[in-house]
Amino acid sequence: MAVRTEGLTKRYGEQVAVDSVSLTVRKGEVYGFLGPNGAGKTTTLRMILGLIRPSGGSATVLGRPAGGAGVNRQVGALVEGPGFYPYLSGRDNLRVLARYRGIGDGDVGRVLARVGLAERASDAFKAYSLGMKQRLGVAAALLGDPGLLVLDEPTNGLDPAGVGDMRRLLTELAAAGHTVLLSSHMLSEVQETCDRVGVINRGRLVVEATVGELRGSGGLRVRADPLSTALDVSRRLAGDDVTVNDGALLLRVDPGRAAEVTRALVAADVDVHEMRPVERSLEEVFFEMTADEEAAR
Amino acid sequence: MTALTASTRAEVLRLRRWPALWTLGGVWLLLNITFGYVFPYLSYRNGGGFANEGADPRQLLADVMPESVPVAVVQGMPMFGGAILFALGALTAGSGYGWGTWKTAFTQGPGRSAVLGGTLAALGGVVVAVVLGTFAIDLGIAASLASVEGQGIALPAAGDVARGLGGGVLILALWTAAGLAVGTLTRNPALAVALGLVWTLAVENLLRAVSSLLDWLGPVTDVLPGTAAGSIASAVGGNPVSEGGSPGVVDNLGGGAAVTVALCYLAVLVVVTGVLARRDVA
Predict the structure, then answer these.
(1) Which regions span the lipid bilayer (chain B) (predicted)?
(2) Which residue ranges form the domains of chain A, and what is each CATH number?
(3) Which residue(s) pair with A167 in the sheet?
(4) Distance from CA of A85 to the nearest CA of B (A)
């Protein structure tokens, strides 16, 4: 296991920022840590990196207590924006970090090239654009080729081309056997790159599953007339898992039942204009899940 | 390579390239040369009537000769050099929280104590370099003035040099450690520097002035860091401010007691910084 937290909790006075989060990141996988802004993602990652002390629970990284001396040498991290010396060049900033890691300067050129900053490496960090700063942060996380990468919203501040580059980089890292723990509030980002996801909302881990499990088997989108009769027939077949959206029905059933549903509708004298299988996006799942959470409150 | 060595190498690199460090060092040298050599020598040329009203010209000349270099190096340190090095310590610690560089350093592998140890070692190196650099430059100036004035170049005794260099390192180390502690406490370089300047340049002097009126305050002001620093400077041979010497140079404590108090402060400040640096990093 690359990362395991058990009942990890952080309180600030009365406020509970992270509430008993138990998550596991397996070796070699890309794990997406999802949640809206302020859900507790960064606080959780900070505890995993030993930057802040948990109020309760525990976190282990690569089998050792999080934040212990030497543990982070096997971890590359970018948390809550890059932190660099503004007066140093990008290259010198990385040289400082390479020294902290106890590795030679040799790796600095490699990681600069990896994030496309080689040509601007001699410029002072303070002269960098937001996207360049972010890319230098990712370069820093790659220094020393650590087995585990912890990246907090790595696409923040990147333009669309930069976001594309970042996705490619993540895919390459995963292919090379790196374990990546990636936080994001953009589901589309996670959907394409992650093996498993953990969803956090208001400090609590709502669910932990593979992307496929989370999206479920999809459903059927039906456009039919009259709608009321079609709804009755659909409810008979699919139970309560039927919603009406934009004049169309969405049935949460195995798309393989399309013929059966069509037959039932036609038998009930309903005109079927459209019948197609749909996949839920993670976005929909996420909003359903967080809405359920809100409703439960 | 140990984590401490790794951290020290990292801190040396980032400090060496920091314009603020060179600015502060330059200001210190400028002050040292101006008040240690330029003004005394101009006064001497002016027959003792300029700035040092009624000063003995022979004494003014002796003060800028090579034999007096150990005193010239340390006499400005208790107050001015101290304030400058306090600022360096405060900026070194405080800026890192604003820039997010402590966060970055702590996620590179070495433990917090190793990172702090590296910072202390690197700043210690800066302190030693400042003292040695000041000594070398002062010696060069004094030797030049001696030849201009047709005086023989009599070098200071080895014991005086050792006392001057050791005293200077201890005074500046004390103030640097204080700056580092306050910078770590406030996590705000501007606030830390402001507090340090107010303390070194104003508060201690006012307290020492008041203690001459209030007997019970004396024992307290005797063990303030500035008093210890000033007493080290006078033990090295600096003239106390009460006898026309540099501001900040006092003789409240003997040399041994002053060194003991300064070492105690140094130890306590390092421990306090170590404890403060363990707090959560936002």
Answers:
(1) 21-42, 79-102, 114-141, 161-183, 190-210, 256-277
(2) 3-214 (3.40.50.300), 217-279 (3.30.70.980)
(3) none
(4) 7
User: CA-CA distance, A173 to A193, in Å (whole number)?
Assistant: 11
φ, ψ of residue A220 in degrees (nearest 5): -125, 135
pLDDT tens-digit map of B111-132: 999 999 999 999 999 999 999 9
User: Which among B274, B110, B263 is positioned nearest to B184, based on CA atoms?
Assistant: B274
Mean pLDDT, chain A, integer: 90
Is pLDDT above 90 for B141? yes
Distance from CA of A74 to the nearest CA of B (A): 8
**Prediction ipTM score:** 0.91
Task: Find out whether B248 and B229 touch, Cβ atoms under 8 Å.
Answer: yes
pLDDT of residue B209: 87
Q: Do A81 and B100 touch (CB under 8 A)?
A: yes
Residue B176, CB half-sphere, CA atoms under 13 Å: how many?
Answer: 25
Which residues numbered 80-119 in B keep a CB inside 8 Å of some CB on A? 99-111, 113-115
Given a contact cutoff of 8 angstroms between Cβ atoms, the answer to whether B99 and A86 are in contact is yes
The residues, any chain, with a CB within 8 Å of residue B194's CB and separated by 6 or more, are none
Reported as a single tens digit per residue, the pLDDT across B63-83 is 999 999 999 999 999 999 999
CA distance B252 to B224: 11
Q: What is the spatial distance between Cα B270 and Cα B2, in angstroms, rounded to a whole number?
A: 20
The minimal CB distance from B99 to the residues A72, A84, A99 is found for A84
Q: Is the pLDDT of residue A236 over 60?
A: yes
| In chain B, domain spans | 3-276
Q: Count of A–B CB contacts within 8 Å?
A: 98
Distance from CA of A77 to the nearest CA of B (A): 7
Predicted local distance difference test score (pLDDT) of residue B53:
58
